[in-house]
Amino acid sequence: MKALLQKLPLPISGLMLGLAALGNLLGTYHMGIRSLLGIIAGIIFIGLLLKIVVFPGCLKEGFSNPVVACIMATFPMGIMLLSTYVRPFLPGLAFGAWMLGIFMNALLVVLFTKTHFIPFAIKKVFSSYFVLYVGIVVGSVTAPLYGMQSVGQILFWFGLAVYLPLIPLVSYRVFKVGGIPEPAQPVIIIYAAPASLLLAGYLSSFPEKNLGIVMGLGTLAFMMTLYGLSQMPRLLKFPFYPSYSAFTFPFVISAIAFNGMTSFLAGQGFQTGWMEPIRIFQIAWATVMVLYVLFRYVVFLSYQAPQTASPEKAYK
């Protein structure tokens, strides 16, 4: 067990987040599937907690790497989503977990900014910045379940305010400066996540919706998702890295956002029949990607020879 925990990479929290989000997406079709995906996500959550207890130094080591430090934000994001699974049974505990997730995410933003963003170095910028700085908008998606729409709205505006300047900064680093190491290449798929997350958060936390905001975020989200899809044939040729977790949540939240936008536009009287094949494809693709990454992680944890170094070192 100790060897398994040592091998368990911190970025698996991205898979945990993807599983929890996919459960909420597919739960509208079958609650049994939602429960199963939630249980698997919960097992990963417990595994990460045990790793932190048994190997407390893994947090410091992981946080020393800007890519891993950003991806660590998927842990509190996952807590926010997993709280929705607990809410029907233990509403008080679920609300406390939701608030804890928001606090942890905010704390990570502050610590990361002080540690990695200041002093600024362009080569320490990765597309994983989107997860760290915009990921807190998961609170906007889930806020209505706790009657906290006002908090969700604040988180949305914060996420939008930091996302807009991050687009040119991260794009300059990725496309102009380049030189991103292979183990960190999969995180480029995170491009598909923030606009979709903002759209999903906006649709959830704002009772009165502005059509221009929905269309603007929806268009940007769709373009970013297309870019992510265009990168997959190249990225799937790489050997397995813990950063494969980036193949999960971005596509799931894209499907959730597109699903929500389709329903909203239909309610506004727009013809959305042409959007249905795209909606179905996004749900199917997100499901396949989450299951594929889960399978690759199972193989990685089950059959790879024990390693003496932490998986997080692979990013360096």
From TrEMBL:
CDD domains: TDT_C4-dicarb_trans
Residue spans crossing the bilayer: 12-30, 36-55, 67-86, 92-113, 125-148, 154-175, 187-205, 211-229, 241-260, 280-303
Locations listed in the record: Membrane
Matches recorded under Pfam families: SLAC1
CC terms in the record's Gene Ontology section: plasma membrane
GO molecular function terms noted in the UniProt entry: monoatomic cation efflux transmembrane transporter activity
Membrane topology: Multi-pass membrane protein
Gene3D superfamilies xrefs: Voltage-dependent anion channel
Keyword Repeat appears in the UniProt entry: no
Domain of life: Bacteria
Classification via InterPro entries: SLAC1/Mae1/Ssu1/TehA (IPR004695), Tellurite_res_ion_channel (IPR052951), Voltage-dep_anion_channel_sf (IPR038665)
UniProt entry keywords in alphabetical sequence: Membrane, Transmembrane, Transmembrane helix
PANTHER family cross-referenced by the UniProt entry: DEP DOMAIN-CONTAINING PROTEIN, TELLURITE RESISTANCE PROTEIN TEHA
Protein name: Exfoliative toxin A/B
Provenance organism: Tindallia magadiensis
